[in-house]
Amino acid sequence: MRSAVNKKYLIGIDIGTSGTKSALFDTEGNVIASATAEYPLYQPQNGWAEQEPADWWNAVCKTLREICPAAVDGDIAGIGLSGQMHGLVMLDSDCNVIRRSIIWCDSRTAEECKQIEELVGHDRLIEITANPALAGFTASKIMWVKNHEPENYAKCAHILLPKDYIRYMLTGEFATEVSDASGMQLLDIPGRCWSDEVLEKLGIDKSLLAKVYESPDVTGHITEDAASLTGLPVGIPVAGGAGDNAAAAVGTGVVECGKAFTTVGTSGVVFAHMESPVIDKAGRVHTFCTAVPGQWHVMGVTQAAGLSLNWFKHNIAENLSYKEIDAEAEKISIGADRLLYLPYLMGERTPVLDTNARGVFFGLSAIHTKAHMARAVLEGVAYSLCDCLSVLREMGVETDDMALCGGGAKSPLWRKILSDSFGINVKTMESDEGPALGAAILGGCAAGIYSSVEEGCRIAVRDKSRLSYDPEANAQYEKYYEIYKSIYPALKENYKLLALLG
Question: What's the pTM value of the predicted model, to 2 decimals?
Answer without folding.
Answer: 0.88
